[in-house]
Amino acid sequence: MPNTSPAGAPHLLLMSPEDNCLIARTALAAGDVVDIDGEPVTLTEAIPLGYKVARMALLPGDKVLRYGALIGSITAEVARGAMLHTHNLASDYLPTYTLGPDAHAFIGSGH
């Protein structure tokens, strides 16, 4: 049976008012109803504890803010209440932080 968010016990945490993502405070199941900005949203997928959830619908190229800071860019259309992760969010951190394809050139340059 789906969970609903009782008043005073939100399942999603807003870290900063300008954020467009929320953080799951508990593991959530597909079909759970959560409150996003005062409106009930039925989740279409399971969301693990600590994962990011879209506060609003997002389009490819949109920037994602957490703690009021840029953390990445959307790579695929995302519905409100959907999980944000590597399947739809690319990190905007420097390649040396993620050891992406450009990291070897940077590391090999002696920097």
Automatic annotation (TrEMBL):
Keywords: Hydrolase, Lyase. GO terms for molecular function: hydrolase activity; lyase activity. It comes from the Bacteria. It holds the Pfam family SAF. The keyword Iron does not apply. InterPro entries: SAF, SAF_UxaA/GarD. Residues 19-90 form the SAF domain. This is Hydrolase.
